[in-house]
Each structure stands twice: as C-alpha cells, then as structure tokens.
C-alpha cells in the first residue's frame, strides 16, 4: 500500500486529495441540484472550497498552503484559536518540538515583520535552576545602529567585515534550490554572510550575489579531482570569485562529528553534480576524515596554502570539540609553525542536520558552551586570541543566545535552524525523505515551487534585522557600546534553588599567556595538554 501511494504521489500528489475531493463533491452536488432540485447549498460550499484550493496554489505567502491546498488551512485555524496550538498539532510526536516551540514562534513573528512583544511578563520559570539573564545598567547607552560588525583576517590581502550574525552551513542538495536562492538574496539585502555548507557553490548561490563563506569538507566538493582528492585548479576557480569572502575548512560537524555521509546516487541531480564536481547519479561520498593532511602541522600548512590560493582571503576551520588533546595538538602546531588561521568556528553538538544516527545527534561531541570555552581559553592562554577570530553555531536563535555566546568568547554567531524557520520550516522532520511540506529541504520540483523566493528572502532579512535590533537593545540596556563588550560578568545563572552566580565565577576562564608560562589553570589542561603533540593527532604516551 505504501509503495502504491508513493507511485500515486508522483503522478497526482496525494497532498492534493482534499482539494480533489472538494472538486468531486462540487460536481456531484451540482448534478443533484440540477437533477433533483436539492443539494444547492452543498454545491456552493464545495465550489467555495474548490476555489479556495485554486487560490492556495497561486498565493506566495504560505508554502504549506501551496503544497497542501484546502487541508493546510487546519494549521492556521488552530494558530488563530491559540498561537501555540499549531506546534502541538504538527509536532505532538516530535521530541524536538518542546524545546523549540517558543523560539520558532519568535522567529516566525520577526520573519513576518510582526511585533515580538508579549503580554503578561516572562514566559520562563525564573526560579528554575539554569535560568539565565543579563544584568542591566541604570545608565543605558544609546547606539546609532544595530549593524554590528567584526573584521576577520585583519592584515590579510582581503579581510572581511562580517556581521555578528550570519547563516550557518547548509548545503544545496540538503536544501532546495529555492531555499538557497531565498537565503542568499536575504543575505545580500542585509549585508550578512551565507555559508555554503560542504556541498560547495551552486548556481543558486551565485544567482543573487550575496556574500558567501565557502565551506570545504572531506569530500572536497567543488575543488576535487575525479578520485576525490583535492584539486588546486578547481579550488582557485571558486575561491577567487568576488562573492566568496572567506574559506572554511570543515573538520567536523556538531550534529554528527566523526561521521561521514553519503548522498545516494538517485538523489545526485545534474545541478548537484555540477556544484560538487561529481558524476550524475553516482553515490556522493563525504569521508569521515580528510585525505589532504594527516597531522596538525600538515593541516595548518594546508590552510596556509588555501589562503594563498584564494588570494589572501580569510581562511580558517570549523570543528566540534571531541578529544581535547586533538584540539591542543592543533594549538601546539600553531606555536611550532607560526601558522595561525584567521578564524575558527566552534560547532556545538546541539547543532542540527538533515539526517544522522540518533546516537550521534544525542551523545557525540561537546556542546557549544564547553567547546567554545575550551577554544577561547586555549587561545587566550597562548596569547593568540587577538590574532584569531572565533565564530560559533549550535541552536543560536535569539539575541540573548548571541549575547551569551559572545560572553563566552565568540566574535560572531551563525544560525541554521533560525533561518530555516524564517523560510517557513515547520520541523516536520521529513528532511531526509524528499517530502518536505514547505519546500525547504526537497529536490522535488513541485514541492519546492511552493517556496516563493522573493517572499521568503524578505522574511530572512526581517529575521536577521529584527534579531540584531533586539541585540542592540540588550547592549544598550547593559550600558555597552558593542556586543563584543559583553563578558561573562554580565550574564547570571541560577545554579541552585536559592543561589545565583555570574558566569565569570561559575565557568573556568584562563588568564592571558598562562599556558605559555607553563601554568595549567584547570583540570582539562592539566590532564590533556601533556598528551598533545604538534606532529600527530594521536595521544602522546
């Protein structure tokens, strides 16, 4: 039966069945009206519903209605009765829903340009252990703009003045063409960056001219030879595009660190093959490890080589922290070679993905707080922090999320799910099936057509701008002049039923130059720093 329904959906999508039923009901009621002089009211009702379906497929505001005419209105009916009911209706069996329900509602409001103000005070339990807030000042500052920037690659031939809030890595192939087009157009209008994901630069990334961060993974998509090895010639072609502002080497991904990936051959379309430099219809494999280097020193030399080939554009790497000695080995290699990346992006294990084993999404990799703090502390302890910018990603949705990450050492934040929500994602969790109801994560031409690019690009822009405006208000309330001034002394956490602490007193921080002076301020350094060696990722001893 399931196979039969799938085949039926290819010819006449079953998602149109309610609309079809209304049309059939209209014809039967009309026949009864003419033949037996009864059923007129019913015919008019079915006619109205049929015309509503026509309107649904032609409007551009709601992707759900374009893909699910008539029946899709149930979602909005429940939303009208009570805003949160749409999540309960759509996500009653979705384990991720309770965490993200409030955040999704916030993103939707901002993306649509609606007010995000709410009555009746906080919706958080301020007495719950783990509740956090930012301390405010009795002398708030007044800032002229919310366009906060950070310079990455200062001193290089082509430094990049980046927004403190950008689109995180999501590949074409995982996302639909229309989703990529909308994200990049929103980024262009707002002057912020769009990370390509490891699927490389597609024609859809280039169409609107928004700033790109080109992510290169272990498959070297967009810069590979036929055997999967790295190609300098292909790299130069893409890296020197004016649109590409930075190059990011992906070591690991928060949602599935240490796990490769396979895009099955039937899903490798001509467009995907063109972007990735692989044959059409052949399995597209992302190995679990890189082949261009095998040691920390080799990795840094490879990054230095990429920077030169890119014409001096900022070049760095992204990782989710795993074995601490491996990260320390990279840090020791920086000292030994003198080669320093322009930036490091720390991906938290709480980050999202289209598909990954449950054990990896739930139990592999360090969460953002621990990973970010370890990277920041290490760079501070080696007096390298001023030379290396640090970005981060991992369930960053709101302005407070950005402020908190910056208090822990981040210079800027990336977000994936927030911008997906802005595109209309309803967390149906069907990303890997090709049946995304909103056209965000599908290569089905009919389904993705429901995602109207101009409308969603505006929503991407709205979400970015309103979130940064909220960040501006937080910075002003704290009496500061830039988010970079937010420190762990500004954020307070309830750590017990009757106790609170500043993050500065609750979390471990390292003094500048401490590691160079031979001081091992915390247990993680005392245990793992001696195990690290610059010439190998393996544990010493």
Kindly summarize this structure in a few lines.
With 541 residues, this protein is an alpha/beta fold. The protein has helices at residues 2-11, 17-36, 40-58, 63-67, 73-81, 85-91, 97-111, 177-190, 203-207, 232-239, 270-276, 296-309, 324-337, 358-363, 368-381, 399-407, 417-423, 445-449, 453-477, 503-506, 523-528, and strands at residues 132-134, 149-152, 160-163, 165-167, 194-195, 212-216, 244-250, 261-263, 284-286, 315-319, 343-347, 389-393, 412-415, 491-496, 499-502.
Report on the architecture of this protein:
The chain has two domains: 2-111, no CATH class; 149-531, Alpha-Beta Barrel (TIM Barrel). Helix 17 (417-423) packs across helix 19 (453-477). 41% of the residues lie in helices and 12% in strands. An eight-stranded parallel beta sheet has the order 4-13-12-11-10-7-6-5. Residues 1-11 and 81-99 have low confidence and may be disordered. It is globular. The protein is of the alpha/beta class and 541 residues long. Helix 16 (399-407) links the parallel strand 12 and strand 13. It starts with a helix and ends in a 13-residue tail after the last helix. It contains 21 helices and 15 strands.
- Provide the CATH superfamily of the largest domain: Aldolase class I
Question: What percentage of the residues does DSSP assign to strands (E)?
Answer: 5-15%
Helical amount among residues, as a percent range? 40-55%
How big is the Rg? Answer: 25 Å
Low-confidence stretches: 1-11, 81-99
**Tally of strands:** 15
Strand order of the largest sheet: 4-13-12-11-10-7-6-5
Number of helices: 21
Main sheet specs: 8 strands, parallel
What is the annotated CATH architecture of the largest domain? Answer: Alpha-Beta Barrel
Q: What gap, in angstroms, lies between the N and C termini?
A: 59 Å
**The CATH topology of the largest domain:** TIM Barrel
SS class: alpha/beta
Average pLDDT metric? 87
CATH class of the largest domain: Alpha Beta
Rough outline: globular
Number of domains: 2
């Amino acid at each position: 039966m399931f196979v039969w329904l799938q085949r039926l959906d290819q010819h006449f999508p079953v998602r149109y069945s309610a609309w079809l039923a209304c049309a059939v009901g209209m014809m039967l009621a009309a026949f009864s009206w003419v033949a037996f002089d009864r059923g007129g009211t019913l015919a008019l009702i079915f006619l109205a519903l049929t015309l509503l379906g026509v309107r649904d497929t032609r409007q551009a505001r709601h992707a759900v209605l374009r893909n699910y005419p008539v029946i899709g209105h149930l979602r909005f009916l429940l939303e009208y009765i009570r805003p949160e009911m749409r999540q309960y209706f759509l996500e009653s069996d979705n384990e991720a829903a309770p965490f993200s329900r409030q955040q999704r509602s916030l993103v939707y409001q901002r993306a649509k340009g609606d007010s995000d103000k709410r009555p009746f005070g906080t919706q958080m339990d301020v007495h719950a252990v783990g509740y956090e807030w930012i301390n405010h000042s009795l002398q708030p500052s007044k800032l002229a703009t919310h366009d906060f920037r950070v310079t990455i690659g200062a001193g290089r031939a082509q430094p990049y003045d980046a927004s403190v809030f950008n689109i995180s890595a999501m590949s074409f192939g995982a996302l639909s063409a229309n989703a990529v087009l909308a994200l990049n157009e929103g980024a262009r209008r707002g002057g912020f960056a769009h990370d390509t994901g490891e699927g490389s630069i597609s024609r859809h990334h280039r169409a609107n001219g928004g700033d790109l961060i080109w992510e290169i993974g272990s498959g070297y998509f967009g810069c590979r030879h036929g055997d999967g090895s790295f190609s300098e010639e292909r790299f130069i072609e893409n890296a020197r595009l004016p649109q590409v502002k930075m190059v990011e080497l992906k070591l690991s991904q928060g949602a599935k660190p240490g796990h490769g990936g396979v895009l099955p051959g039937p899903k490798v379309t001509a467009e995907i093959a063109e972007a990735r430099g692989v044959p059409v219809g052949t399995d597209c494999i992302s190995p679990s490890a890189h082949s261009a280097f095998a040691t920390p020193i080799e990795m840094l030399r490879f990054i230095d080589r990429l920077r030169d080939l890119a014409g001096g554009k900022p070049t760095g790497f992204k990782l989710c922290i795993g074995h601490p000695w491996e990260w320390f080995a990279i840090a020791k290699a920086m000292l030994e070679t003198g080669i320093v990346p322009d930036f490091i992006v720390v991906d938290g294990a709480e980050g999202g993905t289209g598909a990954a084993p449950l054990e990896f999404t739930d139990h592999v990799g360090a969460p953002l707080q621990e990973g970010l703090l370890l990277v920041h502390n290490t760079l501070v302890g080696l007096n390298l922090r001023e030379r290396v910018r640090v970005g981060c990603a991992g369930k960053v949705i709101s302005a407070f999320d950005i402020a908190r990450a910056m208090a822990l050492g981040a210079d800027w934040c990336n977000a994936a799910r927030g911008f997906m929500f802005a595109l209309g994602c309803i967390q149906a969790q069907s990303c890997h099936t090709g049946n995304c109801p909103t056209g965000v994560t599908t290569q089905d031409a009919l389904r993705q057509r429901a995602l109207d690019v101009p409308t969603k690009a505006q929503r991407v822009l709205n979400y970015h701008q309103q979130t940064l405006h909220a960040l501006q208000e937080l910075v002003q309330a704290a009496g500061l002049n830039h988010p970079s001034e937010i420190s762990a002394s500004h954020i307070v956490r309830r750590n017990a039923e009757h106790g609170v602490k500043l993050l500065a007193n609750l979390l471990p921080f390292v003094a500048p130059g401490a590691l160079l002076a031979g001081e091992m301020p915390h247990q993680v350094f005392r245990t793992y720093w001696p195990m690290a060696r610059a010439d190998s990722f393996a544990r010493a001893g």
